[in-house]
């Protein structure tokens, strides 16, 4: 599982918007708050706007704000808005794969991996990501002894 730079930046921007909700925040302020390139932040904000996750407001007091309450927007929605499906196998959805011989059962493994990723990203809201008050199951995952160890 890998989160792209675009996905990471989008979640950082969205969490920043969540902390300021419901007020608007300019693209330059969002970029500065997360030390991101302004132009890249603007492109990501465009993706989030097209996915109906943020609204843009014009004028002196303009900027961007979440289109819904931060508790109602999942991290998974943000990642999908900028990167597409959470899990792919060589550009295809896991259920679209098929193999023969010894590899015949691999699609089930790919689907299970996608379900595991969804069970984290779709269960954590932007409000929870902003406050660190994660669902119990997510907190338990990060508390495991080997969770922070690279493999």
Automatic annotation (TrEMBL):
The keyword DNA-binding applies. Keywords: DNA-binding. The keyword DNA-binding applies. It holds the Pfam family Rrf2. This is RrF2 family transcriptional regulator. It comes from Glycomyces mayteni.
